[in-house]
Amino acid sequence: MGEHYFAARPGAASRRRTVDLVLPDLHLRLETDSGVFSPDRVDAGTRVLLETVPAPPQTGDLLDLGCGYGPIALTLASRSPQASVWGVDVNRRALELADLNATTAGLDNVRFMLADEIDPGLRFAAIWSNPPIRIGKAALHDLLLAWLPRLSPGGLAHLVVQKHLGSDSLQRWLNDQGFPTERIASRSAYRVLRVSSRTEGHTR
């Protein structure tokens, strides 16, 4: 696979280009670069997520976990202009692109940053994510256990995962961790999982 897109500072030589995100309710032209996730087109899983999820909360704090150059976070910001949208990633090049794309789109209700730069007390009314499955199961579980407990009571997360990369087993694991999870959409080998905030009394 070459250098992974989840490197903090990609060593791949910069090669800027643009991709288009076209949805029924918005059209964004996004700048991308080498060394970030899916630089040549908006990832098919991201598109499935954005075309199938219900409308996000109109207010509150909303999170794009693993934001890359920003297609999910910018969609959240566009669909919920009164909300505060946060995009987190480990890839600094991706975060710089996401900032640029937000400015180009005229969206001022979204901020992009490293995970440890976000207030640890912040709670989210919604989390949307095309999570980095290829970091490995243990690291993925750690990532989800760090962020899903930060859903507000009644908050929902929506995750898109390819079936052959373990969407069904991830659904079972999330349920075992006390996060009620169900599949709400299935298209082109992708599953969209809806994850509810952790059930009361479940602490593992």
UniProtKB/TrEMBL annotation:
Boundaries of every Methyltransferase small domain copy: 28-193
Protein name: Class I SAM-dependent methyltransferase
Keyword Methyltransferase: yes
Signal sequence range: none
Species the sequence originates in: Actinomadura nitritigenes
Pfam families documented for this protein: MTS (PF05175)
GO MF entry, a single one: methyltransferase activity
Record-linked SUPFAM superfamilies: S-adenosyl-L-methionine-dependent methyltransferases
GO biological process: methylation
Keywords for the protein's UniProt record, in alphabetical order: Methyltransferase, Transferase
Membrane-crossing segments per the record: none
Keyword Transferase: yes
